[in-house]
Fold each of these.
Amino acid sequence: MTTLLGCIADDFTGATDLAGLLARSGVKVSLRIGVPAEPPKDTAAFEVIALKSRTAPVDAAVAECRAALAWLQAAGAKRFFWKYCSTFDSTAQGNIGPVAEALMRDIDTAQTIYCPAFPENGRSIFMGNLFVGQQPLNESPMKDHPLTPMRDSNLMRLLSPQVTQPVGLVDRLTVARGAGAIKAALAQLADQNIAHVVVDAVADADLVQIASACRDMPLMTGGSAVAMPLPDLYVQDGLLSREAAQAQVHKVDPGAVILSGSCSAMTRSQVAQYCRTAPGFRLDPLALAQEGAGPALAWLAAQTLETTPILYATAEPDEVRRAQHALGTARAGDIVEDALAQIALAALERGRRRFVVAGGETSGAVTKALGVDRLDIGAEIAPGVPWTYCQSGGHSIALALKSGNFGAVDFFAEALACLEAT
Ligand SMILES: Nc1ncnc2c1ncn2[C@@H]1O[C@H](COP(=O)(O)OP(=O)(O)O)[C@@H](O)[C@H]1O
Ligand SMILES: O=C(O)[C@@H](O)C(=O)COP(=O)(O)O
């Protein structure tokens, strides 16, 4: 069917997060890995294109997102959603702002909103400041992220250097007055030529009002949660019928592996918890730089298919800094991503069909290595982390791509149990 909402996500965990939240309403959501080479065919009402552009050079990220936009326009979409991290992961150069401005130019629209709030996962925005739980972003563990350390909590200050046009705010006091007040505030800001508007939200009810106010905007931007109300609003508006829904039921053989390249605080606890009861192999970037992934691959080969081993580069911030100092930040990340990608392929060759991957960049590397081009969305393990199903090397496989900070401490065991139960 004609695509109603065309979504572009800057990383793969973000894409499954968004697809999972849209799918909660029961509508069909299609998730493509990278910009499809073929013109649109068999498209869904909600199309999500997953890119690995979060930490790419600005020009490359902009070019890739514009290509994704062109594909979604060819699929018939007139409304678009630019999905980035609920912790606004970006550098002073981008890529959130430059991509938004390029998309606005191509779509020919003068204003967009920025709302990374995700209350279910503890991300809220008040007076333009982003909080992670009770901590301002810059005091949260995101201050130590290996690739995009977040050292400011103010979204207007973070966004301004990334864009050429003025940045404004619709604050919580306005949002609390509902969709009409939000619309009026946006119109007033548009009269002042404010192109980029951060919108406060501290609870799901705020997001419903924001989505309601902005549902006809050609471009919305944010985390997944502000897009979640859109399917129901489109149904209310008569744009979509519930019949579009289709349950995704897939059978996937057993044999699982857990791969973690996330160094986020939550992933560190999850890895430590899982290692208490399961075989684990720690990947050290310095050792990988010298001897490659050989020892990890040999270790994996010695594990029986009945156990679910974990291979992880997950490390404390001081260890990450040591590796980055010795190897350079980008190279340290690439070495780890490359090793985990090789390990994923070896696991597939050895009969493992269920993959739990922690980390957005890591998920991008693993998914690319597995040659996956389209994912179906399955059961949600934790808010923002669904199981997904796809084909790799002629096999049906299941992939759970976990954002660094998502999931509870038992996430890995829960993910495996969730798949058994479906
Ligand atoms: N021990 C380590 N030292 C340096 N970099 C690491 C280490 N472990 C993982 N990395 C890199 O850190 C980055 C983590 O990013 P990502 O996978 O997106 O996780 P998250 O979802 O937590 O942001 C990846 O590029 C990964 O390769
Ligand atoms: O919005 C979010 O927090 C996630 O969907 C997301 O983008 C996570 O990125 P990583 O933490 O890098 O996995």
Note: The first strand starts at residue 5 and ends at 9.
Amino acid sequence: MNHIQFENGKLILLDQRKLPFSEEFIVCETAEDVARAIKDMIVRGAPAIGITAAYGFAMGIKEGLDVDDVYSLLLNTRPTAVNLKWALDRMKNFYKKAGNDYFKLLEEVRKIHLEDIEINRKIGENGADLFKSKVSILTHCNAGALATGDYGTALGVIRSLHKRGLIKKVLVDETRPYLQGARLTAYEMVKEGIPHFVITDNTSGLLMSRGEVDAVIVGADRIAKNGDTANKIGTFMLAVLANYFNIPFYIAAPVSTFDFSIESGNEIVIEERGRDEVALINGKSIIPEKSPVLHFGFDITPNELITGFITEKGVVKPPFDLLQKA
Ligand SMILES: CSC[C@H]1O[C@H](OP(=O)(O)O)[C@H](O)[C@@H]1O
């Protein structure tokens, strides 16, 4: 997936707001352009916004922006995904050694980008090792190639299972209101020829009650020290349902999504976004003009509802000792 490209000093992003019906690209020429692209969700997904911000950091330094200013400009775009801060911290630390050497900074960004793809392939294989027979997997939002450097985290597991002939079907819930599932995950499933069905967000319980779901696998935006996990709004409800039906519920995420500086999910900031994302579909209002909305981008799944965390280092559980070793 070439949704994040860097050419001639410009960052070229696939506009994910236009998928699946139109593949249009946005050209970012400044760090300001990159910040806006992240905030407007032209690019989205925890690792993908980290990679994008890293390119923006190098572009900002080349423009002559103060290092703390470019760091803050990009960090303040979206609050929940820790990968954004992880990538910017890595670039800022690298800057302390490389200084304004733009080409060295770009080399570090490329390393972040390529490492992420390799990490996702490991997540895919580690997750696929959990299953020995054909399975139906339910997934929420888009934790795929479009949300990462490529291959995906939750969809990385699904891609690896598909390669092993172990996918019966993928249940793709639509994920209102941005519709990452219906628009983006379904787009990836079609491109890869993976058998799938798009379902409405409120269909999951019925399918679980009918034995149609063998496991739930989703991505993550920030995982606290105790395993409480921030992910797209609606994840918490799925975890409660999965536990009610004794269906395994996995989080697939790179180590860079774990935030060991926070003890629990209570410390995770939940992004709130604008009214229009709920009130409009294709620019047309679907609610009364005078109706206010509550629009939270994420929720917190308590660690006790999570069967395991599929990472590039293996499948782990709190206290995550394996992840904290050098
Ligand atoms: C592989 S992390 C993807 C993660 O990011 C999504 O959020 P958004 O689309 O708002 O950036 C969602 O929480 C996914 O699980």
Note: The chain has two domains: 4-119, 126-324.
